Amino acid sequence: MQRGLDDASYRMLRGIRWLALLCLALTAAGLDVFVTEGETPRDLPVSLGQRLWFLVPMAAIWAVGALLRYRRLRAGIQINLRSVVRRRKWPRIVLAQAAWAMLCALLLAEIPWSERTVPQALFWAGLVPTLATIWFDRKKTV
Prior knowledge:
mainly alpha; about 75% helix; about 0% strand; elongated
């Protein structure tokens, strides 16, 4: 029974990566990191107000996607989530990937970039390792 609860907790933790990737994609789209032909790209650096505004959708995504979901869980399941993270390797990897993608999204959003090459590299640095592991651990349990 403990193994089944651990597996269910791990599947819940894997959903956190998608929230972080969504924040990364929204930030990259807001900065026009990838310019398509025929469109006028946004002028860089973006104003301070716009950079701070990028935090609003990120906070909303995390509030709705993770915090509300976590608070609705029973106390025993909350304790098991923390226990799974302490006991197992893959849940720690999942949390580290979500933190890395969010760090890349925050760096994209809050640093006043003057050219697009560094934000593009930062976007791919946040996206590729996480997506590669999502594909790898699709059928993995804890």
